[in-house]
Amino acid sequence: MTELNYMEIGARIRKSRESQMFTQEKLAEMLDVSVKFISDIELGAKGMSLKTLNKLSQSLLITTDYILYGNDSEAEIGEIMMLLQKCPTEKRKYAVDLLKVYIRSLDN
Fold first, then answer.
1. Contact, 72 vs 11, CB < 8 A?
2. Which tens digits make up the pLDDT trace of 41-88?
């Protein structure tokens, strides 16, 4: 069984939070926790409940596997999903089409 490294978990959370340009205050508000608690998690000083882990995953659009174990491909998928969700619904199809064209160009 893989040991959990709280410092690495915290670093992944911080990286994800910053990539979405959330402050610790904003994330704390989204999770209904204190800013100090977010800081402690990011520093690896504290763990979190399953409920908080789930809310964190949903708020940052990343998987719990990425948070706990650092699978980078999961983070990239979460980032792509986040970007697509930020697109206006009526324009989202164009973003998906662009991604499909890009992927097809890699096959050539």
1. no
2. 999 999 999 999 999 998 998 888 889 988 766 667 777 877 788 889
What spatial distance separates the first Cα and last Cα of the chain, rounded to whole Å?
41
- Among residues 89, 87, 78, which one has the least CA distance to residue 56? 78
d(CA 16, CA 43): 14
Amino acid at 105: S
Specify the CATH class of 6-107 in words: mainly alpha
Query: Which pTM does this prediction carry?
Result: 0.72
CA distance 44 to 67: 12
**DSSP letter string over the chain?**
-PPP-HHHHHHHHHHHHHHTT--HHHHHHHHTS-HHHHHHHHHTS----HHHHHHHHHHHT--HHHHHH--HHHHHHHHHHHHHHHS-HHHHHHHHHHHHHHHHHHH-
